[in-house]
Amino acid sequence: MLQLISHIVRTSSKRDRTEINEALIDALADLFHPISVTIYRCYASSRGTMMFACAGLDSRSRYVHNAYLPDRRYCRPIDDDPLLARCRRERSVSLEELPGGANRLAFPVVQLNQLVYVIEIVVSEDFPADLRVLLMAVTEYFGNHIGLLDYGETDTLTQLANRKTFDKHLFELLGKAQDDAADDRIKLKARRRSGGKTTTHWLAVCDIDRFKSINDNHGHLIGDEVLVTLSQILRRSFRFDDQLFRFGGEEFVVVLQPAKADDACKALNRFRQNLERHVFTQVGQVTVSIGFSRLQGADTPTDVIDRADEALYYCKRNGRNQVAFYEELVESGALAAKSLQKGEIELF
Questions:
Q1: I need a labelling partner for 174 at 20 to 30 A (CA). Which of 25, 125, 133, 281 fits?
Q2: Would you name the residues annotated as active-site residues?
Q3: Lowest mean pLDDT among 135-144, 208-217, 292-301
């Protein structure tokens, strides 16, 4: 009992998904001595539900990945696994008997009717019934704690990640950009031969065109409907591992996983066109302007947001309903390079 209380106290003190996952792995290992455990974070995508193995342990190793930044090396469709697919469909604990007598259990964690996690645990055939009940209670506690965390990390209207979450994790995203920069240095000659078309992370700022007039002419309830519908189109338009945030008001931020500049521009234009084609019952057509810039390893959060904003303002000044690439605008002379916070000048 004291062990259980100790793990509950430790887990309840965490306010970060990665740390919560780590605490759960430790609790399951200490309390139940399983053969193996895997914590999957789940994402809806055009390919169905995708799973990211963000933490786990077995007899040989223990790992914890950043739960906010899905690594595609550890992602796969849930339908590839019959047991986990059944867990998703039935939204209940599912069991599979393995050769040799072990039992594989899958516990779903559901928030707002969406599967957000699956906890897979393999235990011996003689795993006691009372411990099975306790195991279910621990996984339910984990789900409740994640639900509370979601409440603080999620915009209540659109259900996208909120500004607070963006601020909290941008430094981690910039750490990824440092990895990009290191890779660029290794592949410098190849980049020059390809005209600089290497893959990298990108940040885009998206702003609804003339949103104030929507609120003024139709009321804030209709304005809220526009924001909710736009967020749904946003989710459908990007990959499951791209990061989507409601930045505030009618402004949204997208952080694209590594892609070439042309592909990033195509993805952003796909969202813009999807929104433009949607007919809103009360409002009619709604459009969005988008500015984007590359995440650089030496950036501060202000640097990259300012560059994307500069490209966004260029769109607003030049007709709206378009996508603008900051570095390309600078290269063409349409914009002057911004001075960085550190007193340096951007070079391209």
A1: 25
A2: 250
A3: 292-301
CB atoms within 10 A of CB 235: 19
Entry pTM: 0.86
Q: How would DSSP label each residue in 85-152?
A: HHHHHHTS-EEEEPTTS-EEEEEEEEETTEEEEEEEEEE-TT--HHHHHHHHHHHHHHHHHHHHHHHH
Residue numbers of the domain that contains 208: 163-332
Where among 124, 153, 182 does a domain terminate? 153
Query: Is 149 found in the same domain as 182?
Result: no
239 lies in the same domain as 317: yes
Length of the chain: 348
pLDDT digits (tens, 9 = 90+) for 204-218: 999 999 999 999 999
Number of domains forming the structure of the chain:
2
Q: How far apart are the first and last CA of the chain?
A: 61
Cβ–Cβ under 8 Å, residues 275 and 230 = yes
The structure tokens listed for 253 are 């931020």
Supply the CATH number for residue 229's domain: 3.30.70.270
Do 186 and 326 have their domain in common?
Answer: yes
